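Illustration: glutathione transferase.
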Amino acid sequence: MTIIVHHLENSRSQRILWLLEELELPYEVRRYARDPKTMLAPEALKRLHPLGKSPMIEDDGRVLVETGAIVEYLVEKGDGRFAAPAHRDAALRYRQFLHYAEGSLMPPLFVLLVLSRVPLFGRTARRRFQPMVDVHLDYVETVLATQPWFAGDTITGADIMMSFPLEAARSRAGLDASRPATIAWLDRIHARPAYQAALAQGGPYAYA
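Result:
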């Protein structure tokens, strides 16, 4: 059965398209544009789920939301490819970064995005808030300086989850060549054929 992906432009849902391409699961994309004034998701998504958020998938009569939950669902559906490694420590790293992406890293990045849209006060607040983001970026750099992927030697769903916040950080939160291991990781994921195929399916994406 074909998975339906309700895909919002320039959003977290690009990760789901990438994972589906990696797992070679059949899917159909239904694209949604943001409101040009508010940059929020359109009301049409609320007709599918009360939260009206993307990513959202439909599969076998189910409607699922929340990127991490969708990633876990698809990994299971894909016979364990991109799943946690067998080694206990690597499996724990997988689980940690699967949740860290949205639980710890994305919130301060979202605050910076909001502040960037506030004139005068926003610039001052950004200067004070940036050090909080830098703590996270420095942590990520120390991890990727010792291993190629977030769970260890193999790409997993943890890397799928970490892609959007680090792409956003490169775009608007100071991630640059001063953190070479993280930049090299971004270059590796962007070079993957499945990633490029997902971009073609999802349409314009500001962070790749």
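Reading the tokens back as a structure: The mean pLDDT is 93.
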